Amino acid sequence: MDRQAICQRFALKVAIAQTRLETLKAKAEAAKAIGELRLIVDLAAKAYAIHRTLRELKKSGEAAYQQARVDVESRIAHLEQLVRTIEAKFKAA
Predict the structure, then answer these.
(1) Non-local CB neighbours of 28 within 8 Å, separated by 6+ positions
(2) Distance separating alpha carbons of residues 29 and 37, to the nearest angstrom
(3) Contact in structure between 43 and 83 (CB atoms under 8 Å)
(4) Assessment of whether the complete model's pTM goes beyond 0.85
(5) I need a surface site. Which of 2, 20, 69, 74 has the fewest CB within 10 A?
(6) Alpha carbon 28 to chain centroid distance?
(7) Domain count of the fold of the chain
(8) Residue 92 placed within a domain
(9) What does the CA dihedral 70, 72, 90, 29 come to, rounded to 10 degrees?
(10) Is 14 exposed, middle or buried (0-12, 13-18, 19+ CB in 10 A)?
(11) Which helix (H) or strand (E) holds 46?
């Protein structure tokens, strides 16, 4: 898979996570779940940071690209896991 396709796939995953976080934020505000709301805002900031890193990834040299790609992949996986955890809390409530 070429660099542009990988970056597009990562950007799509981040965009999906951001959309899910916006939905969760609305639910947290409605439920007045302050703890979850703080976590959601923190995760939204992390998603934005990943998105910023993706822009840098597109411009990086090959050696830096390989290292940054691994870092971005793991950060996206962690973000997705945390979003699923918060979603599960709201489903259980």
Answers:
(1) 34, 36, 37, 40, 90
(2) 7
(3) yes
(4) yes
(5) 2
(6) 18
(7) 1
(8) no
(9) 170
(10) buried
(11) helix 34-59
Alpha carbon dihedral 62, 68, 69, 74, in 10-degree steps, equals 160
**What amino acid is encoded at 83 in this protein?**
V
Residue 11 maps to a domain: yes
Classify residue 1 by its DSSP letter: -
Tens of pLDDT, residues 6-64:
999 999 999 999 999 999 999 999 989 899 999 999 999 999 999 999 988 888 888 88
Closest C-alpha to 28, from 14, 19, 38: 38
Give the CA radius of gyration of the chain.
15
Q: List for the chain the helix, strand, coil content (%; round to 5).
A: 90, 0, 10
